[in-house]
Amino acid sequence: MWGALLRRGARGAGGLRRLVSGGPPWSQVVSEAEKIVGYPTSFMSLRCLLSDELSNIAMQVRKLVGTKHPLLDTARGFVYDSRNNLQMRGLVVLLISKAAGPSTAELSFQHNMVSGIYSSQRSLAEITELIHTAFLVHRGIVNIGELKSCDGPLKDMRFGNKMAVLSGDFLLANACTSLAQLQNTKVVELISSAIGDLVQGIYYENSKSSEENCLTDDIGISTWKEQVFLSHSALLAKSCQAAMELAKHSAEIQDMAFQYGKHMSMSHKLHSDLQPFVKEGSSDTMAFSLNSAPAVLHQEFLGREAWIKQIRELQEAIKAGKGVTSAIDLCRCHGNRALAALERFPPSEARAALANIIYAVTRFP
Description:
Mean pLDDT: 78
Structural class: mainly alpha
Helix content: 55-70%
Strand content: under 5%
Oligomer: single chain
Shape: globular
Number of helices: 16
C-alpha cells in the first residue's frame, strides 16, 4: 500500500520507507517521473543535438558503419536507449527542483516557474545532460595500439577518434556557454568543479585499464568510493545543489540536494556493478570489471594473495563469496542515505518520484 501511495504522490504526512526488496521497475519509474516534470527528458538535449554543426558531425559518423568503433554505439544510444539511463541525471535535477519548490526568500521571479520548476533549473538540467553526453562521447576514444583487424580499417578507427574528440568538445562547449548564461557565479563554480572531478575520475579509470595485467590495485572500498564519486557522482550531486542555489534555497536544503544526488548516483553505480553477479541467467562470459564494487569487496574479504590466485575463476568466486551481498548492502545503504536527505523536502509527487528512483536502483532479483 505504501509503495502505491508513493507512486501516487505521497501527499499525506509521514516519512519515506526504508529499503527492502521490491518496488516498481526502472522503466516505469522513469516514465512516471517524466510526466511529473512536464516532458520526456529523452529529448532534453534535442536543441543541441539537432543543430547544424552536430548534424554535420552525425553525417560524418555514418562513415564508421561496419566498424566496431564505440562512437557508433554511443550515437545509437541517443536515438534509442532501452534502459532509459542516458537522461537520468537531467531528470533527477528537474525532480529535485520541483520537490524543493519555490524559495520564500525569492518571491519576485516565481512567474518564471512552469510545472513548479524555474526556467533556469530546466536550463541547468540540459547543461548537466550535455556535460554527461560529452564525456560519454569522449570515453569512446579507442587505443589504436590495441586494435584488432576485426575492429575495422585503421584509417576508419582513427577517423572515429577524431569525431569523438570533435563532437564531445562541441557538446561541452555548448554546455559551458549555457552555463555562463545562467549568470550565477556559485553555480558556475559548482558545475566547473564537477567537470574537473569527471576529468580526474576518468583519467584514473583510463590509466588503470591500460595496464597490461588489468588487475585492480590493492585498494579498499573507501578508495573505490572516492574514485566513483569523481567519475560518476560529482556531476549529479553538484547539479542538484546548483538547482537549489538557482532558487535561492538555504544552505541546508542545498546540502540535502547534494546528498541525495551523491548517494542516488552511488546506488546507481553499485546496481550496475552488481548486474553480472545477480542477474538471472547471466552467463560465465558476461562482462564485468575488476574495479567493480563486488570485486573490490571480495578482494577485501579474501586477501590480496588469494585474490590473485583466484583471478581466472573470479566471477564464480565473487558470486559465492561475500562481495555480492556486501555490495548489495552498500547499494541500499547509499539508497537509505539518499532517502534520508529527501525527508527534508515536503511530500509531493516529485519527492515520491525521487524516492521511486532509489527503490528502482536498489532492486535486485
